[in-house]
Design brief:
six-stranded mixed beta sheet, five-stranded antiparallel beta sheet, alpha+beta, about 475 residues, 25 strands, elongated
């Protein structure tokens, strides 16, 4: 155990301390699922696992509360795995190393996994908590939320009897969410024509950006490392002064790229002009993004020439494509103040097997606006001669301000924590949208502790907010029975 297990509330933090040691990549949640089942077995609670790997654990009502309505609590087992490039860490085998930074718990150069590990730890703690009254509970642990919400999409809804649900995957203390955006991913694939490498190699890196969650943080106008590196390269290209041999960046569809790297082949005569142009453009970018990304760093080093580089036509096609693709906020909501309505994240660029693959993730709380954004991405890809693949969009969650569950949570929040919570919709994609489609008429609310900068190595959770969060969950379950 680490010092984390000594934080309050002890039961939650002891479970989270254990979770830090369990690899739980999206689509590889088997060890985390086995841990959930082991905890359920330890408390004598029955469980079921559906065909896709979601787990439902049932906790009977406290004596005298058997007639209360069944309440579902829901969190997802997987986490986004991001690390700084200079950190030696293997998410498949290594335990996350926590550290305290003032009032916050964070990790050491990696994502912490408090999204949604705190929600999971809370549900595990509730399994053994006999200190509060509650009706029948169904504890739903879903898989693969971070890479496509497939656990929720493939959930066997017949396993659930409850028609009121507390989603524990929000990240702002004092806020209750009643709606979320829908979204969908697009992948563009460009064939790479090559020629024998000529000239010297330069390795160029853009690092030190903050990145963040492409839903929660997109409005902060942080730099996108892929987009900005491509911008600097295009500004220095000068009609053919170099050939690309590599450009890559980003690691997850729902994380804003923090780092990007390129290798170019340049002749001795053009080397100085290219370096000067890249540095000049990056200086301009630093001036633009300085308030949002003060840690931005450019590195330009001599590299080992690869056997081949992309030919001129391919180099131009790739640079034009990345520079033309949209990234950031597309529209703000007319109905809900300060809510991003529509956005797109230029998420990943990687070259392999003779092709360049560019991944983008679009979001919107309005179906037609989401489709319009995706059509725009598709059009840019087609103009660049890329093949276009689109996954099926997942639905948003329409706010219901007349929700009975909302009224209960607001009243409990006021009584237990002394304040009225804010009621909001979120631009991120919660599983509530999908669950609402699978279980018509279900009443849902989402809330959580204060988690900042998720999906990046800066991720941190406010320690004291976790105690408030657990109090709110337990008191709400008591009120509902």
């Amino acid at each position: 155990m680490t010092f984390v297990a000594e934080l309050e509330p002890t039961a939650v933090w002891q479970h989270f301390d254990k979770i830090l040691t369990i690899p739980r990549a999206s689509k590889d949640e088997e060890r985390m699922r086995a841990h959930v089942v082991a905890v359920a077995d330890r408390h004598g609670l029955p469980h079921q696992i559906d065909a896709s790997g979601n787990v439902v654990v049932r906790k009977p009502a406290t004596p005298g509360k058997e007639g209360a309505a069944v309440t579902i609590l829901q969190s997802h087992l997987d986490m986004v795995q991001e690390k700084n490039s200079d950190v030696v860490f293997d998410f498949a085998t290594d335990a996350i190393v926590p550290q305290l930074d003032g009032q916050y718990l964070t990790a050491t150069g990696t994502t912490l996994g408090s999204d949604n590990g705190i929600g999971v730890a809370t549900m595990l703690a509730l399994m053994g908590d006999t200190g509060f009254a509650h009706g029948p509970l169904e504890l739903l642990f879903t898989i693969d939320e971070e890479t496509g919400l497939t656990g929720a999409a493939e959930l066997d809804a017949g396993l659930l009897r409850g028609r009121q649900l507390l989603n524990l995957d929000s990240e702002e203390d004092g806020i209750v969410y009643v709606g979320c955006a829908g979204g969908g991913d697009t992948q563009l694939t460009v064939p790479l024509a090559t020629e024998p490498a000529a000239g010297s190699a330069l390795s160029i890196g853009l690092t030190g950006l903050k990145g963040g969650h492409s839903g929660c943080d997109i409005h902060l106008q942080r730099g996108n490392a892929v987009q900005l590196l491509a911008r600097a390269l295009w500004a220095s290209y000068g009609g053919g002064r170099f050939r690309l041999a590599r450009i890559e960046g980003g690691s997850a569809h729902n994380a804003i790229p923090r780092e990007a790297f390129a290798t170019i082949l340049v002749t001795a005569g053009d080397r100085g002009a290219v370096m000067a142009a890249v540095e000049q453009e990056i200086e301009a970018i630093r001036a633009e993004y300085g308030p949002a990304d003060p840690g931005m760093q450019l590195t330009v080093d001599d590299g080992t020439p690869p056997p081949v580089a992309w030919d001129q036509a391919t180099t131009e096609r790739v640079l034009r494509l990345i520079n033309a693709l949209p990234h950031g906020v597309g529209a703000m909501s007319y109905d809900i103040p300060d809510l991003v309505e529509t956005s797109v994240n230029l998420a990943t660029v990687v070259a392999e097997n003779g092709t360049l693959r560019v991944g983008l993730s679009s979001r919107s709380s309005i179906d037609s606006a989401l489709e319009a954004m995706r059509r725009g991405v598709r059009a840019v890809g087609m103009l660049a001669g890329a093949s276009v693949e689109e996954d099926a969009a997942y639905p948003g969650w329409k706010p219901d301000l007349e929700s009975r569950l909302l009224e209960v949570v607001k009243a409990v929040h006021k009584r237990e924590l002394g304040t009225e919570p804010e009621v909001k919709a979120i631009h991120a994609g919660l599983e509530c949208g999908i669950l609402g489609k699978k279980i018509p008429g279900i009443d849902m609310i989402s809330f959580g502790p204060q988690i900042e900068f998720p999906h990046s190595p800066d991720e941190r959770v406010h320690v004291a907010s976790v105690a408030r969060f657990y109090t709110l969950v337990a008191a709400t379950l008591s009120e509902l029975c």
